[in-house]
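User: quick one, fold this
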Amino acid sequence: ARFAVSFVPLEAIDHIINITFNKESVPGAPFTAKIHTDPNHIVVSGQCLAATAVGKPSFFTLSNVSGNIEDIEVAIDSPSGEEVSAQVQDLGSGTFKAEFCPKIAGEHQIYISFREEQVPGSPFACKVYNVTAIKVRECVKGIVGKPVTFLVETSHAGPGNLEVTVNNGQVPTSAQAQGNHTYAISFNPKEAKPHIVELKFNGESVPGSPFK
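Assistant:
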């Protein structure tokens, strides 16, 4: 006779299987069943998976991991093709932290695998930006009722959103693309007083901001 025996493991540890016949162990018993974590159950989280800044120590976490640090592999490719090093740390309770520090702006690909299998969502596209690479041609003195225009260049800043406010948003602004990631920012002053211009890129203040 032949029998199919099955069980559902609840932990990613070696399971010892004993088989007896008439209270005697069958040849080869006990057997060891090596149980691995399903990579599809691992959860990867962190804002830096989507976007981070050049030169900023960044990290993301892996949770629900049943294994050790040797089972996790993180590879990060920069736009230049060079690999960005990542350090993985065991935080305990099935949680791991991966830290990296990008050196150039542009989209980075983050590959995360567990026991040579990619986890859900891998590779992740991380948009790395450099707010210090933004160039601003400061405003000249304006005249009430006439548009004041200045140029902002973001060609080397990487992907992101440029935000412009004048006098805490009390004065409307407009932006017009000039090509090559250069934008003409304009506002129309209604009063003869200093106007405070604030520039932010991905929520971070551009060097020199606010301008007067």
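User: anything notable?
Assistant: DSSP finds no helices and 21 strands in the chain.
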